[in-house]
Amino acid sequence: MDHLKKNKKYVEVTSLNGMPRFLEALPLAIQHVVAMIVGCVTPAIILAGVAGVDSSEQIILIQSALLISGIATLLQLFPLGRYCGSGLPVIMGASFAYIPLLISLGSRFDLATVFGAQLVGGVGAVVVGLFYKKLTKLFPPLVTGTVVFTIGLSLYPTAVTYMAGGAGAEDYGSPRNWLVAMLTLVIVLFFHYFTSGICKMASILMGMIFGYIIALAMGMVSFRNVQSASWFQVAAPMYFGMKFEVTSIISMLVMYVVSSVEAIGDFTSTAGGGLDREATDKEMCGGIIGNGVASIIGAFLGGLPTATFSQNVGIVIMTKVVNRCVLGIAAVIILAAGFIPKFASLLTTIPSCVLGGATVSVFAMITMTGIKLITREELTARNTSVVGLSVALGIGVIQAGGCLGLFPDWAKTVFGESAVVIASISAILLNQILPVERAESIQETAEQDTCG
User: Cβ distance 116 to 248 under 8 Å?
Assistant: First the structure.
């Protein structure tokens, strides 16, 4: 037995497959959990507020969001069959992109209607995944790069809002919040650029740990929710029921199609930034289908729509830690949080300013990954128009609040709440409509002749 232990070979955490040393993998896994935990539970908290549910049902929504996030992550890391899961190093969680729609549906209908629409939306995502190969011409690097670039830009306000203390905080924008946020950012940068080994790879976690200690010393951490949370809780399947309403279903289907475009961007940036290669058609197809299947399961368990978490994609790109077992440990921890409310509550005590200071550099990496994808193609006048106009429309509509004021509510919900939606649709349409310049046409013809 000792002989077998001595001969057991561990892989580096920068290898996609294989088992790394547990003590090396654990802190890197925790780093992913800490980066996603607040964002994962926030949609559930918001939906519970607008739906008017009591505190016990709010806890169930939060725990279910964590539970389905863990299941969805494992499904992506370790695919089920040939077409259900990408096999790429990604973390899944309850998506912020759906929050405007969830607020709209939760305020007008009940939770059963939300989960009924989610079930159909998940089926829609599976259909998109099945036909992905026929749709690949719609998503060249120019388009996916524009989507990733817009995702990064749209996350900046979120990071800055966290750094200032979090929206709605009594001390929002206070010098104290900014001091802790900037100290956390400095610590992240120090560990990433001035250390090596595990400290360098876990720079985000190190920043959060030291930032948390600083915030704790300044009296910014509250353990009230931890004390009131129970130790173990399992929600029964179909606890909230399920209803089907046409308007809700149509809105959710649109969001799932758009979310699939965002997923393409995240899968592309994960493969490109973490694995130094392009994502394969099988990985793209399996990733979209896997997310659809996870959403279907979530509809029965009370978990909200999931998506790839861009901040975790950024961590993969920044650290080059792509080992699936590392992220698998993170998924198990997320699952544990779904069964142990006290554990999840402890993670949510991290002050917003600490989270913002630790993740702003991650969001910057996402933006730069988008630029790298865009520049894979020559920046001709046509291509710069595709990128520039798409980003201008997406970011511009969001920043010009109320510019869609006379549109129907469903249109304002779908197009007026997410810069990524407009940018994605614009990039796809412009790339198909704008004529290819003569030099590009000659080059494409020459390449086809060579291949022939």
Answer: yes
Per-residue pLDDT of the chain (452 residues; tens, 9 = 90+): 554 455 568 888 888 888 888 888 888 888 888 777 767 777 787 777 677 776 667 778 888 889 999 999 999 999 888 788 888 988 898 876 677 677 777 777 788 888 999 999 999 999 988 887 777 677 788 887 888 788 788 778 878 888 888 767 778 888 889 999 999 999 988 988 888 766 776 677 788 889 889 988 888 887 776 777 677 777 778 888 888 887 778 778 877 877 777 677 778 878 887 777 888 888 888 999 999 999 999 999 888 888 887 778 878 887 788 899 999 999 999 988 888 777 766 766 778 888 888 878 777 877 887 888 888 888 888 889 999 999 898 888 888 877 877 787 777 766 766 677 788 888 889 988 888 876 555 555 555 554 44
d(C-alpha 87, C-alpha 82), whole Å: 10
Please, are residues 302 and 60 in contact by the beta-carbon 8 Å criterion?
A: yes
DSSP string across 61-126? HHHHHHHHHHHHHHHHHS-BTTTB---SS--EEE-GGGHHHHHHHHHHS-HHHHHHHHHHHHHHHH
Helix (H) or strand (E) holding 306: strand 306-308
Question: How many other CB atoms sit within 10 Å of the CB of residue 183?
Answer: 18
Contact 358, 35 (CB under 8 A): yes
Question: Whole-model pTM?
Answer: 0.69
**333 Cβ neighbours under 8 A, 6+ residues apart:** 29, 30, 33
Q: Looking at this protein, which amino acid is placed at residue 155?
A: L
C-alpha to C-alpha distance for 425 and 19, rounded to whole angstroms: 40
In single-letter form, the type of residue at position 441 comes to S
Structure tokens at 164: 């200032």
